[in-house]
TrEMBL record, chain A:
Family statement: Belongs to the peptidase U62 family.
Residue stretches making up the Metalloprotease TldD/E C-terminal domain: 249-440
Every Metalloprotease TldD/E N-terminal domain range: 20-84
Protein name (Swiss-Prot/TrEMBL): TldD/PmbA family protein
Pfam families linked: PmbA_TldD_1st (PF01523), PmbA_TldD_3rd (PF19289)
Transmembrane segments: none
Stretches assigned to coiled coil: none
């Protein structure tokens, strides 16, 4: 153990903490944004600080600081213990943590080329060329962005764990917005909307995207949408592309599987969950072919980790197996309540925030169909992809999602392009209607760096492995006028 | 830190910069939050953080860097890094240079209360206990947060800008749940003394009790009465989609080209005012520019959008003092939205509805079609059926898909009373009334 975390833990214990952990984090970020060939924002950020979590008098306390000195170590440990004592004024029972194997470990990052060694001018140059290429007549806005993260996190606990983990993340994406004289606006993105695709990799991940090659087709896609027909409305069969399905998995499987939500801890912000403990082991969440995993061990996945922020070694569990709901994302305090063992899903957004249950990599296991076979099985339907809009109720049941692009399917073949495709449904009805999943060749693990949860808000980096999949009798084309 | 200490540190760092222009923005925050659910406190946290953001300009090159290290050495290092970053950047031909200083209405606004800054965790716990006990008395389960924040925002630049403001926020939120219903309440103020846990608890409990055993209604067009909490969710989306110069750039602004035209109902006035003490004022933005009131809609007629210095230069306008931290990809943003008060009460509005829906709160709103600000989301934490002028019983939560511009055109009644709703950004607040709207589109129902 290093002297700083040792001092924090000793201080907390001296003041009466029965448990203490300290995370000392040194983190660099770089965000690059280019619009229409010109740099819009390049931000280098450095954060260093520590967070101290304690149990005293049977209740939790947490405090954190960006000042890393011995005096501040003493002050924050003292404050965390004082807060725990205040919490105990309203406790009903003592916090109990599931036992965990103690670890002394050092985990290296997974990047080949440190993205922070690549000059800003190269990053801006690549995005500038890509966004200039996208500025075809009719395109009103071409954006490109990259984001990189490098972190060293030390976790030390009063139980004796001491874990040093290094992490490097890289991500990038481009998008084109086209506008018509009639006022319609359409967007296409590559490789994924919002911040693009992200992974625990280095600069090689960005190079492999081949942003320049995809810039013009992306822009042409946005332009083509302006003259596409509106999305039809009705109950149809639906093939959901892998990118859109990542969102579906995130919202309708990942979040409702978070055990803290299930136990009501998120009720005042993100809501609760329909996956109540009485459903565990028996509830038909999806059809027989639906297998959903929480797997932090996938190499390079953005949601991957070796140890979580409680020092628990991450392991793969089936949230849904053979269509039956089986397991939760959990923590040391919540897992025993439902008879589970911790599986490594407690994470905090930086040093300043207290860990909460978060998704790791939540994945729909691939099936055995080619894309052509998925489409061929639809007489009258729709194929959609590209995340555009998402909304789901506070129990994660009623969802309505919009995609960037769609195509009608008739007679087992893709037909006309449609704009503003939307679909809506109820989570378990939707997943029970799944009768085809794309094969491993169509499988991709998408990195999502904007998952919000908790109070104060914490943003987690998660991932979702998906292939395209087919769903029957889905309401598409939500009319609103 | 005091204004003098913080500005002194920042000015020393500014002097050490070798860039043509340099700007330093420092935010410090001491915040604490008590988080409760299922009638227990499950997290109780504090954080002491600082963030220093530096923009260095060399010719037309702009470099930025940020750090959490507020020490003289940390500031000197970050200024050097920003300057070095600028020299490695390509020219940004559209960058107008850092803005020149303008007088700031210091002293006109409050925003910082010593009692809030000094509040202790035990006080938060006792307040939360009152909410919990009120819920337990009805056999209900309470969840929520009690947050207290004491922050500083300081801006200095080599152009001569020197701005400083301290502000506090106290906010108590309650979601009270029964087996098949829930209720919501939020109280926020700069002054912790304004937070009344008994009122907060009572409002959330009453809603949860009244909406027990919800019925299912078929989706469709309904006349609605929206509480200030529901209006806040929608105005937040409108701000994101359509009230800034960036939305003009993205062709999603409904005001573009319609200045002075009747766009919404003549009873609707919508504006941003960072100086109005009725909200949570901060008199300058993250470039140290004074906040100006911006009228989006005045008695339904189209007005202006908000600008920062970048978009002001790009579009030939003056900054309105609505910059977020620079550089950013969000553009200028209204953090102090007000809707003008009407002359009604919420009870009056309900009494004017023959058959409709009362919405306590919306949830998970997201754009469907940015043009017209068409958004979707669901109701939450207290949705009532209104029949013959009375809230008769709870209904299952509904999904809406509604154009917000259209909604403002069909707003027929606005309350006198407005709620102050602290921003989730940690700075600013919306001040919003209840509104009655005709023909609000519900497109689905939850289970």
């Amino acid at each position: 153990m290093d002297k700083f975390t040792e001092r924090v833990i000793a201080g907390a214990k001296r003041l009466g903490a029965s448990y203490c952990d300290c995370r000392l984090i040194d983190m660099e970020r770089e965000d690059v944004s280019v619009v229409g060939g010109a740099p819009r924002a390049v931000v280098h950020a450095h954060q260093r600080g520590f967070g101290v979590r304690v149990i005293a008098n049977g209740a939790w306390g947490f405090s954190s600081s960006s000042v890393v000195t011995d005096a501040e170590a003493d002050h924050i440990a003292e404050e965390a213990v004082a807060i725990a004592h205040a919490s105990a004024l309203a406790k009903k029972k003592d916090v109990v943590l599931a036992p965990v194997a103690l670890s002394q470990d050092m985990i290296p990052h997974q990047a080949d080329v440190d993205p922070f060694t690549i000059p800003d001018s190269d990053k801006i140059g690549l995005l500038a060329e890509a966004t200039r290429t996208m500025m075809l007549p009719g395109v009103v806005l071409a954006r490109g962005q990259m984001q990189f993260l490098k972190e060293r996190k030390i976790f030390a606990s009063s139980e004796g764990s001491y874990i040093v983990q290094d992490r490097v993340e890289s991500g990038a994406g481009v998008s084109a917005m086209a506008a018509s004289d009639e006022g319609d606006v359409q967007v296409r993105s590559y490789p994924m909307s919002f911040s693009g695709d992200n992974a625990q990799s280095g600069w090689e991940f960005v190079e492999a995207m081949k942003l320049l090659e995809h810039a013009e087709p992306t822009a042409r896609g946005a332009l083509a949408l302006l003259s596409a027909k509106p999305c039809p409305s009705g109950v149809k069969d639906l093939v959901v592309g892998g990118q859109q399905l990542a969102l579906q998995v995130h919202e309708s499987c990942g979040h409702p599987s978070e055990l803290d939500r299930v136990m009501g801890m998120e009720a005042s912000f993100a809501g609760t969950s329909f996956l109540t403990p009485d459903k565990k082991g028996s509830f038909r969440y999806g059809s027989d072919i639906v297998n959903l995993t929480a797997d932090p061990t996938i190499p390079h996945a953005l949601g991957g980790l070796v140890y979580d922020d409680e020092g628990v070694r991450g392991r793969k569990v089936y949230l849904v197996r053979g269509g039956i709901f089986e397991h939760y994302l959990n923590s040391r305090a919540s897992a025993p309540v439902v008879g589970e063992e911790p599986m490594g899903a407690m994470r905090a957004d930086g040093f300043a925030r207290c860990p909460i249950v978060r998704m790791v990599s939540i994945n729909l296991e691939p099936g055995d169909l080619t894309f052509e076979q998925l489409i061929a099985g639809v007489e009258d339907g729709l194929y959609v992809d590209g995340i555009k809009s998402w909304s789901i109720d506070d129990r994660r049941l009623n969802f309505q999602f919009g995609s960037e692009i769609g195509w009608e399917i008739r007679g087992g073949k893709l037909q006309d392009m449609v704009r503003n495709p939307t679909y809506t449904g109820v989570t378990y009805e939707f997943w029970r209607s799944c009768d085809g999943i794309g094969n491993p060749e169509l499988y991709h693990v998408w990195g999502v760096d904007n998952c919000g949860k908790g109070e104060p808000m914490q943003v987690a980096h998660v991932s979702h492995g998906t292939s395209p999949a087919r769903f029957r009798h889905v309401q598409v084309g939500v009319l609103h006028e | 830190m005091s204004r003098e200490q913080l500005h002194g540190l920042m000015n020393d760092a500014l002097k050490a910069s070798d860039a043509d222009q340099t700007e330093i923005v420092t935010m410090t925050s001491n915040s604490a939050l008590t988080w409760y659910a299922e009638n227990i406190i499950h997290q109780n946290v504090a954080e002491h953080t600082a963030q220093v953001q530096v923009r260095a300009v060399v010719g037309k090159k702009v470099g930025s860097a940020s750090t959490a290290d507020c020490s003289p050495e940390g500031l000197a290092l970050i200024v050097r890094q920003a300057s070095q970053a600028a020299r490695l950047m390509p020219d940004d031909p559209g960058f107008p240079g850092l803005p020149s200083p303008q007088p700031i209405a210091a002293g006109r606004v409050g925003g910082w209360v010593a009692a809030t800054a000094a509040s202790q965790p035990g006080e938060r716990v006792l307040a939360v206990k009152k909410v919990i006990e009120r819920a337990e008395h009805e056999g209900l389960r309470a969840a929520g947060t009690y947050q207290v924040q004491n922050s500083e925002l300081a801006v200095v630049s080599s152009m001569g800008t020197a701005a400083y403001q301290q502000y506090t926020v106290a906010a108590l939120k309650a979601v009270v749940m029964g087996d098949d219903s829930s209720g919501y309440s939020l109280m926020s103020s700069a002054d912790v003394a304004d937070i009344d846990p008994e009122v907060t608890g009572e409002q959330a409990v009453r809603t949860a009790v009244e909406t027990r055993h919800p019925a299912e209604v078929e989706p469709g067009a309904f006349e609605v009465v929206l509480s200030p909490f529901a209006v806040e969710e929608l105005m937040g989306m409108l701000a994101y989609l359509a009230l800034s110069a960036r939305s003009v750039e993205q062709h999603t602004c409904f005001l573009e080209g319609h200045e002075g035209e009747q766009i919404s109902s003549p009873i609707v006035s919508l504006y941003d005012d960072g100086l109005d003490p009725a909200g949570m004022p901060v008199p300058f933005d993250f470039e140290g520019m004074p906040k100006h009131r911006v009228d989006f809609l005045t008695q339904g007629k189209g007005g202006n959008v908000v600008y920062d210095s970048y978009y002001a230069a790009k579009m030939g306008r003056a900054t309105t003092g609505h910059s977020l931290q620079q550089p950013n990809d969000i553009g200028p943003y209204p953090l102090n939205i007000f809707m003008g008060a009407g002359d009604s009460s919420e009870a009056d509005m309900v009494s004017h509805v023959e058959r409709g829906i009362y919405v306590t709160r919306f949830w998970y709103g997201n754009p469907v079609e940015p043009r017209g600000a068409v958004v979707t989301g669901t109701t939450r934490d207290g949705t009532y059926l209104i029949e013959n002028g009375r809230k008769t019983h709870g209904v299952r939560n509904l999904r809406f898909t509604q154009g917000l511009v259209d909604m403002l055109a069909h707003t027929v009644e606005i309350s006198r009373n407005r709620a102050v709703l602290a921003s989730s950004f940690g700075i600013g607040a919306m001040v919003l009334p209840s509104i009655r709207v005709e023909g609000f589109q519900f497109t689905g129902v939850t289970r």
